[in-house]
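May I ask for whichever protein you like with its backbone structure tokens?
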Amino acid sequence: MEDLKTSETWRVFRIQSELVEGFETLHNLGPAVSIFGSSKLGPGNKYYDEAVALAKSLADDGFAIITGGGPGIMEGANKGAKKGKAPSVGLNIAIPTEQIPNRYQDISLSFRYFFIRKLMFIKYAIAYIIFPGGFGTMDELFEALTLVQTKRIESFPIILYGSKYWKGLIDWMKNTLVPNGTIRKEDFALFSVVDTPEEVCFLINEHYRVFGGVRPEPNRTKRKKKGETT
């Protein structure tokens, strides 16, 4: 029992360490967009290719790109950001299946705890773009919707990319959740559904123009390695 108590106590310090490293590393990132999607949709898939194009366009507009750091859509978004004019950020996670960080990250962080990683996604993003994905992607989508719906955070663009992919889910919400009173029709205004990078860029730039203030110059500062001095 004592060993378990000691282990739980030290876990608090590991959590604190991840929070501090995340805050210190991303504090000066500037306006950023978080992009989510399946790790299984790789090069040659239309959504991967469109994630590359979209991330480059947003990076050229001055938005840093944040992903989960893995393969698939995450790699595509980091790759596009790397080609653009703003930082490419990967928030990697230590999981039993061992995620291998993609090679397109200017700033790379590794997390043990999902909840801290998700905090970094939401804290430093002025918009969420949700590409087709599985349980992890759905988790990020519904957490963001819940936070906005309950007014725990200010409303910001939550954009579902690929109307054909998301149609079944949206129809289910309209035909099951609304009639049962578990969500309201007005809640569909919390997100947008698009099919092109141009639509995404318009929504995000318009939102930032109205609510974001003056955008700082793009900064491609790479994360310093441990022990490196300025």
In short: The chain has one domain: 29-210.
